[in-house]
User: Fold this.
Amino acid sequence: MRPLDAKFNAIDGSSAAAYLAGSLAGIDSLEGRIAEIARAITGTIAFSTSLGLEDQAILHAVAETGAAVDIFTLDTGRHFPETLDTLAQSEQRYRLRIRFLAPAAEDLERLVARDGVGGFRLSVEARKACCDVRKVRPLERGLKSAAAWITGLRRGQSSGRALVPFAEWDAEHGLIKLNPIADWSVGQLEAYIAANDVPVNPLHARGFPSIGCQPCTRAIRPGEDIRAGRWWWENEDGKECGLHKRPAALAGAQA
Ligand code: SF4
Assistant:
């Protein structure tokens, strides 16, 4: 397959995604999958990291392969101090810079003026408005010129992610969305982290398998779903921040 151009339409993008979904499935190692992505795509490859276990594994593989990837995280302004420490430690370990994308000041001021600093607890709509300003819009800015977007989504993370493919055309962002550890179990992930001594957020060892903003994340109890500590005051259905919307057909299939 010829390398993909930075700009392609939905038909080319869909067929390229289908090709990559097949080729990634045939490669065992994460480093091999990252190398295949870098080989196939000539435009900007973006990697949005939350500094969670999945993204730390991918960060390690990106650094190992030396793939040219634009790595960024979303500065929500509400991170745990441990998350920021993990970011600094990762930059030092891998000798790279992780771009820090902040919300637009005017958006944030308007949101807080309307809902208050803790307004995300008022309603699901208010919570989604906060995620929109602090996460979704900065993400859109980060992906604006990207041809492809690497994420750490895994099928085992939640029922809503059970059908995550290795690659798909993301019509909303006009790029190929790549999930190179879609098929990994949590056991595989932990083994990779341990084998490579990957720096991880110390909160994971304190009952936080999934870490988001401080006021919206709690430790989970034994037996709880790994994402039960995210927005725990809401119903289980649709507990996403809007960064990873699923196509309507798939969303229906998961219901
Ligand atoms: S996770 Fe909570 S604090 Fe962070 S952006 Fe979403 S609602 Fe706001």
